[in-house]
Design brief:
With 369 residues, the protein is an alpha/beta fold. It is built from twelve helices and twelve strands. The protein has two domains: 18-44 and 273-364, Aspartate Aminotransferase, domain 1, CATH 3.90.1150; 47-269, 3-Layer(aba) Sandwich (Aspartate Aminotransferase, domain 2). Strands 2-8-7-6-5-3-4 form a seven-stranded mixed beta sheet, with helices on both faces. Helix 3 (92-103) crosses helix 8 (242-251). It is globular, with a radius of gyration of 21 Å.
Length: 369
């Protein structure tokens, strides 16, 4: 075939998600799988969002609102910022994609710590840009000093995942503030706060409230996929200078966020904040239980602050396989450069119990098959 593709695509592999409910082995007794591989929230859409989805079904033959102005206004009111600074998209990954499309030329550099969320490097490679990574600190958090030391004249974007996925480490207020003050003006800093609503450390900053302004090259991304329970609907947003938001709108797919996602996200923002506090507290309790019981079993998870924990287990692929045979899906981290570790989502109380029982059984057999 004579079609000629962009040369940058030769260095690109499709994004590999964790295993979900439609994949892998079934639990031998027919029980529902415990889906702990993809950092999904343990709770579904809030009641108001579920009602909004049902009500929207009758309008499924109509396109969603062009430009998503309604959701922009809701997000802007939620954060107390102008709507011109809000860019809704089909999840945080879509924001990263459009930033890359607007900013990156072949040979430009995109900087992040590693291991981290794979979309940062993937979106760079799609554009022929060069992913540059530096190590995380000892607690699994982004290392601001290491990032600053790696900035070059070719750096266009620097990502800060806070908390970081898969490790859960945090960059605290003072360190992030000093980093942003020191980053050169030609670099856009993208602070990925996908897990923001799970964190209860008072030294953890709200980057939208504390660091964002129209005059500063800082973008902050959030998602409805985690604590709000809308992962299957694909909706998130960036908060960023208005000029950048206008540039992103030029390349965004028309009607990208569907009617159901728009309705559900709007209803979620209007929901009782007590429900989100309940989810945060339940997740924190489950996280503490995982860390405590794994520690008692002789394993030491990395410091955790979101809805997942990372655990060093030896042969991670074998452990994940044997857990899957028992109906428990977790994420082995070999493709993240950590073949000795798995990442486990904090699920419901029942799912956590099933994981811990299965994990103890797998590890008691010695070297997993």
């Amino acid at each position: 075939m004579g079609v000629r593709f962009r040369t940058a695509l030769g260095d690109v592999s499709p994004y590999q998600a964790g295993r979900g409910g439609g994949e892998g082995t079934d639990h031998p007794d027919g029980a529902e799988k415990a889906l702990l591989a993809q950092n999904e929230g343990a709770f579904g859409p809030v009641a108001a969002a579920q009602r909004a989805i049902q009500e929207e079904a009758a309008q499924g033959h109509r396109y969603p609102e062009s430009g998503f102005a309604g959701l922009k206004r809701e997000i802007a009111a939620y954060h107390g910022i102008p709507a011109d600074n809000v860019f809704p998209a089909a999840g945080s990954c879509a924001v990263f994609h459009y930033l890359s499309l607007c900013l990156l030329d072949p040979g430009d550099e995109v900087l992040f710590c590693s291991p981290t969320f794979g979309a940062y490097g993937l979106e760079a490679r799609k554009m022929g840009a060069v992913p540059v990574s530096v190590p995380l600190d000892a607690d699994g958090a982004y290392d601001p000093a290491a990032l600053l030391g790696a900035v070059s004249d070719r750096t266009k974007i620097v990502y800060v995942a806070n908390p970081n996925n898969p490790t859960g480490g945090l960059v605290l207020r003072a360190a992030l503030s000093a980093f942003l003050d020191a980053v050169p003006g030609h670099v856009l800093t993208v602070i990925d706060e996908a897990y923001f609503d799970y964190v209860d450390d008072p030294a953890y900053p709200d980057a939208i409230a504390e660091f964002f302004s129209d005059e500063r090259p800082v973008a902050v991304t959030r998602t409805f996929s985690k604590i709000f329970g809308l992962a299957g609907l694909r909706v998130g947003y960036g908060v960023l200078p208005a000029d950048i938001a206008r540039k992103l709108a030029k390349v965004q797919m028309p009607f990208e966020v569907n009617r159901f996602a728009l309705a559900a996200a709007t209803a979620t923002l209007r929901a009782d904040p007590a429900e989100i506090r309940r989810r945060r507290e339940a997740t924190a309790a489950g996280r503490l239980r995982l860390v405590g019981e794994l520690g008692a079993a002789g394993f030491a998870p990395l410091p955790a602050s979101a809805n997942f924990v990372q655990i060093r287990v030896g042969d991670a692929a074998a452990v994940a396989h044997d857990l899957a045979e028992r109906g428990i899906l977790v994420r082995p981290l070999g493709s993240w450069g950590q073949p000795d570790s798995i990442r486990v989502t904090v699920g419901t109380v029942e799912e956590t119990t099933r994981f811990l029982d299965a994990f103890r059984s797998v590890m008691a057999t010695g070297t997993p098959s």
